[in-house]
Amino acid sequence: MINISDYSTSPPKDADRDKLEKETKAYSKRLAELHNLVLASKSHSVLVILQGMDASGKDGAVKEVFKYCTHNNFRTYSFKKPTEEEFGHDFLWRVHKQCPQKGELVVFNRSHYEDILIQRVHGWITEEHAMARMEAINSFEELLAFDNNTIIFKFFLHISYEQQQIELQQRLDEKEKHYKHNANDWEERKQWDKYMDCYEFALNESDIPWTVVPVDSRWYRNYIISKTMVERLESLGLEYPPLKEEK
Q1: Is the Cβ–Cβ distance between 31 and 68 less than 8 Å?
Q2: Is the dihedral of CA 53, 134, 191, 4 positive or negative?
Q3: Is residue 66 predicted with pLDDT exceeding 90?
Q4: How far is the C-alpha of 46 from the C-alpha of 29, rounded, in Å?
Q5: Is 241 among the domain residues?
Q6: Where in the sequence is the domain holding 169, given as residue range(s)?
Q7: Which among 108, 129, 147, 221 has the fewest CB atoms less than 10 Å away?
Q8: What is the DSSP letter of 79?
Q9: How far apart, in Å, do the first and last CA atoms of the chain sit?
Q10: In a domain, 33, yes or no
């Protein structure tokens, strides 16, 4: 049973920043090599799900962790408010078509979990509906994993209430961050406790487990995500395919 309050949003006190930043660089470079193996072998696809409160560092994670990856068969997708066409389908319709094909690495900056987070917080769906959607999400992710050899990483970017205020205020105070400012983020912040309850529900009801990532210190966020991905992808034992014989 995951209780979010039991998880620190900061690095361990004995964490050596200089040492871990060097390791992170090595992990990120190795991740690029493993991404190339995924591309070449075309035996698996990779889906990375980043979820977290506003200002938890989703954009920064993409920029830093995947900075050595080639743009070939790597892409990110951010889910916004559904369009009229998307509202006319089931909630997973727009998600399925953005999932990676074999040989591709895709990062979801927010994801299908929004449909059991913000919608629950604001009472736009019933609790019964949220439970049904959670079951559908588990079945959907099982389908991706079983039918397309999709390796699914799910990262909950765990920011503290205090650090979120600092990050949101910087968007007001610092010129280069003005473009990130959204007044609605401050309104959503008022629902913090409800969001934590909904995140706990998602983390505990998921069949494919989440990694809770402390993000108050961004360098530690990068370390955990890159390390987790490298260790999992290396365990696949991927190899480059042999040279094809010419006929």
Answers
A1: yes
A2: negative
A3: yes
A4: 17
A5: no
A6: 16-234
A7: 147
A8: -
A9: 58
A10: yes
The CA-based dihedral angle spanning residues 104, 225, 113, 111, taken in that order and rounded to the nearest 10 degrees: -40
**SS3 call for 217:** coil
Distances from the Cα of 84 to the Cα of 87, 97, 117, 133, angstroms? 5, 17, 20, 20
- Taking the mean position of all CA atoms in its chain, how far away is CA 201? 17
Give a yes or no: residue 243 inside a domain.
no
- Chain centroid to Cα 96, Å, comes to 16
Q: State the Cα–Cα distance between residues 64 and 198, nearest whole angstrom.
A: 28
Mean pLDDT confidence for 106-114? 97
Question: Rounded distance, CA 202 to CA 143, Å?
Answer: 18
Query: Residue 81 above 90 pLDDT?
Result: no
Read off the CATH number of the domain in which 77 is found: 3.40.50.300
pLDDT digits (tens, 9 = 90+) for 135-190: 999 999 999 999 999 999 999 999 999 999 999 999 999 999 999 999 999 999 99
pTM check: above 0.90: yes
The answer to whether 69 and 32 have CB atoms below 8 angstroms apart is yes
Sign of CA dihedral 175, 180, 183, 186: negative
Rounded-to-integer distance, Cα 86 and Cα 92, Å: 9
Is 246 a domain residue?
no
Find the mean pLDDT for residues 120-130.
Answer: 95
Nearest-angstrom CA–CA distance, 197 and 4: 9
3-state helix, strand, coil in the chain (%, to 5): 55, 15, 35
Q: Give the number of other CB atoms < 10 A from CB of residue 71.
A: 7
Binning pLDDT at 50, 70 and 90, where does residue 245 land?
confident
Phi-psi region of 14 (alpha: psi -120 to 50; beta: other; left: phi over 0): alpha
